[in-house]
Each structure stands twice: as C-alpha cells, then as structure tokens.
C-alpha cells in the first residue's frame, strides 16, 4: 500500500481535472437541484453513482469486460444530458420519482466507471498487483466527487438563500447550461463513434 497516496491523488485529480470536465458536470447536475438540507438524498445519489462506477471500473481494470472507448466517450455526455433534462422536466420529486433517479444514477455510474477505467489502465501499465491501486484510485475519485458536491450545494445555498434567486430559476439555469455543454460534447464525439 505504499503507492496509496499516489493513486489517491491521481483519483481526485482526475475527477477534478478541468480538461476532462464531463464528470464534474455530471456530479454538479446530479446534485444541483438539492439544498444542504437534502443531504441524505444527495448522499444516496452519490452512493448509487459510486457503486455503479466502482463495479465497472473494477471489471474493466481486471479485464473481465472490454471497453469500446468511442462509445463510452459518447455516452458520458449523453448521461449528463439526460440528467439535466430530467431536472428541467421533472416536478417536485415524489418517492417513486426519487427511486427512479437513484436507479438511473446507478446505471449512469456504470458508464462513467468505464470512462475512468481507460485512464487508470493507462497509469497501471503492466503492473501485476493492481487491487491496492484500484482501491486507492477509487477512494481518490470519491474524495474529489465529495468536493464537487459540497461546492455545488454551497453555491446553491448562496444563490437561493442569500442572493434570493428562486430555486426553480437556479435549477433551470444550471441544468440548461450543463445540458447545452454536454450536447456540444456529445456532438463532437459522435463522429468518432461512426469511424
């Protein structure tokens, strides 16, 4: 476990990397409709995402499943678009709607995990002992993810409670902006899917 700090750092730096901001956008749009008082719902959502991406990250790194990189790189912004659209079109979350959102987040986590695996596999090279590195990288991802959640919830609190922006207006602005960015990302990645 002497490499734990290294892979932990690589994990949080990877998710917070502005050059690969798709994961940042996903976490932001996922929790952007919630307030600090909704922390339990956010915790369940983030846990569902974590479970999803942990499963496929491990399966891919251990070569149990193979990754079609262009397909995954295209699907990641699609997951962001779908989540943003659900925020815009959804009314107040009813219990059944919330359960669907948890399931959707778990499924989307599976897709994002395959995206993380490409990066991690390139770091591991031909390393024979990868379990500890995988664990450390995953913990690092979670640390970075929690930082994004905290920043998003604090921003929501400031804008809604201090600046007095209506909660729906903030949700609509954030979700629409992220939908637009992810639409452009998906459009840019589509040709690679065909080629």
TrEMBL record:
Keywords: Membrane, Transmembrane, Transmembrane helix. It holds the Pfam family HupE_UreJ_2. The keyword Transcription does not apply. It comes from the Bacteria. InterPro entries: Put_HupE_UreJ. The chain crosses the membrane at residues 20-36, 43-65, 71-90, 102-120, 143-163, 170-187. This is HupE / UreJ protein.
